[in-house]
Backbone:
């Protein structure tokens, strides 16, 4: 489905919905996005919602292909060209399939990052992050998969 998604993505109005819903969570320091797909909403959240002084966005999807596409999006995006914006994508660790893997996202943030995005393979069934770590949760278009 990841190959098909690139053709349907330009017709999605979910990005506007994401920004409207997230406007109440403006300037969050720690945001979790589950079911991020190819990263369209992730990039919008990182650029417009995430707090600019140490903000952390974790965007995860259960599909390695989607996380790989999202990494390419960030490699080529304006987000990566802005000073202080950093990102890291882990396409090797499978937090979906290996229940023993855990991660503390705060340990990944570079000291000079004003905004940091971490992408990985995980889903709602098993999130490998500390409880009550995030201030906001976004899950666009993934309820039908739960």
Residues:
């Amino acid at each position: 489905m990841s190959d098909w998604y690139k053709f349907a993505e330009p017709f999605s109005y979910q990005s506007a919905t994401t920004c409207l819903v997230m406007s109440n969570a403006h300037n969050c320091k720690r945001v979790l996005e589950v079911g991020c797909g190819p990263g369209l909403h992730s990039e919008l959240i990182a650029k417009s919602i995430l707090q600019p002084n140490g903000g952390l966005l974790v965007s995860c999807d259960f599909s390695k292909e989607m996380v790989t596409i999202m990494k390419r999006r960030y490699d080529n995006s304006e987000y990566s060209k802005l000073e202080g914006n950093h990102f890291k994508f882990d396409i090797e660790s499978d937090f979906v399939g290996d229940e023993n893997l855990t991660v503390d996202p705060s340990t990944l943030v570079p000291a000079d990052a004003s905004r940091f995005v971490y992408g990985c393979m995980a889903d709602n069934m098993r999130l490998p992050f500390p409880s009550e770590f995030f201030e906001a949760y976004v899950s666009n278009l993934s309820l039908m998969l739960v």
Notes: The longest strand covers residues 85-94.
